[in-house]
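Q: How do we represent a protein-ligand complex in a form that can be generated token by token?
A: Start from the inputs.
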Amino acid sequence: MVLPKFVEIREVGPRDGLQNEKVIIPTDVKVQWINLLSKTGLNYIEATSFVSPKWIPALADHNEVLEQITRNESIIYAALVPNLKGVEGAVKQGVDEIALFISSSEEHNKSNLNATIAESIENLKTVAEIATNEGIPLRGYISTVFGSPFGDDISIEKIKEIIDAYIEMGVKEISLGDTIGVADPVQVKGILSELFNNYDPKLFALHFHDTYGRALANIYAALEMGVTKFDSSIGGLGGCPYAPGASGNISTNDLVNFLHRLKIETNIDEDKLYEATNFIQQALNKQLDSKIYKVQSSK
Ligand code: HMG
Ligand code: MG
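Then emit the structure tokens for the protein with 3-hydroxy-3-methylglutaryl-coenzyme A bound:
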């Protein structure tokens, strides 16, 4: 078994992390935080989302955040976009990449996007066309791949239907989401084997929430299958407010430390991650769910 030598991390804290917090973080604090994240060696930061502020009030300041951060040329600053209004805003702010999203559960898609999966695919086609005309690369999330918060069955056929639609739209990377953190390593290997028989494995990234503490085990299973791209959130922040039971993402701190321990490079500085975590912990005024951050704090 050969593990990859290098793993790319997509930091989703400023988007997935803050969307689920009750406290609304002031814009200037978000900006300082993203600027700290930009100094850690991360080369991908999902900075915000262009969704309805009625649905996600915590990210209503998407324009101001993107206007005020200091952009590092070597970092991709991405934003999550569900519809026409969102893509127009994201284009105006010159985001480097647009992340589309859809769920493989009809129930969750309805709850999260107020649309059927078929309607969402149609909406996203328009978004993708506009982004492509503007030369903005596309990433696509598929939520609830490993289980739905509403208990409805997730079929591999539905997942493939969404993958095919994304490929048709020109999506270059597909992030398979364990929205409520229920996956296990055997399931991960089973689903990846099925998908890798049909698609280029390089197309996929994995996005694990850590509700049951199995995210690193799932990531190890995926590494063994050759996956080299993972989403994570600094301090283990995160969760989808429209997926009951969702908790934080695997923390970037724990993921990076785990990878370094396995002699897998990331180019990310663990001490600088600590600084950025400490900053947001103080702003949120709560203990964050990262084992490595706790170890570093106790020194
Ligand atoms: P809707 O209510 O059907 O939309 O929601 P609407 O078109 O009727 O619009 C309602 C209001 O929102 C209108 O304002 C629109 O203008 C406004 P009003 O006229 O009432 O004043 N609006 C917008 N404003 C700003 N930007 C926009 C926008 N769109 C509409 N883009 C809608 C449909 C898609 C808008 C809504 O369902 C929505 O915003 N959903 C987003 C929910 C969300 O962000 N969830 C969390 C992210 S997904 C996730 O966390 C999973 C992931 O991490 C992967 C994983 O873990 O699995 C990605
Ligand atoms: Mg998520």
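The beta strands are 8-11, 44-49, 76-80, 97-103, 138-143, 173-178, 204-208, 229-232. The CA atoms of residues 87 and 129 lie 10 Å apart.
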